[in-house]
């Protein structure tokens, strides 16, 4: 039996539009959606033509979190969420969010409606988060006697203060997009979040894809490590960029005042 189409992928030029596609359930996460989110991220990673991802949700909400009723109907399948084999670094629950952080290209989340629990952890794993002013957010796992277990804790540590992270996680309270921006969890609040994301993605795609991927990798490696280790990764990353084809193209385009910009090559 074929799986329902829980996640859609639409590639427009160099931008991959990924949408959670369960609008009748406010894009609640069930097992097919877990699998398809991971499969979609892997498909994107294999493409050297994709330079940016926009992650959004169909219908009235981005994602209302885990669909407990659907998961409860498949207890044996649900157990796979927490199973980690020795050769894996993440279990399935962690991988469904963390796979977007590991992508070589930047991921922009477009958020509207409700963004609770697992949905919140999905956006925390993205690189940039753009929310509609009416968005409602919550780290809701405490309501079920749980903790954020979809890699949310490591991404919270990158984005906000420890006391804020503890308060939001321990209370599970609802907060607004503007509050999220104040806490460092939302990058931009916009009345037209998709248009904002598409304009930003186009701006990113106009730059060297090799340098963009290197920037994401460098920041992910160094943002919260000791200064000596960060300096090493900075030197190593720059050495891999200098003199490469896309770096030379960027130099030529930067020096050419009136000539048409030369297109960049796929990242290597």
Automatic annotation (TrEMBL):
It comes from the Bacteria. Coiled coil: none annotated. InterPro entries: ClpP/crotonase-like_dom_sf, Ech1-like, Enoyl-CoA_hyd/isom_CS, Enoyl-CoA_hydra/iso. Pfam families: ECH_1. Transmembrane segments: none annotated. Gene3D superfamilies: 2-enoyl-CoA Hydratase, Chain A, domain 1 (3.90.226.10). Belongs to the enoyl-CoA hydratase/isomerase family. This is Crotonase/enoyl-CoA hydratase family protein. It comes from Pseudobowmanella zhangzhouensis.
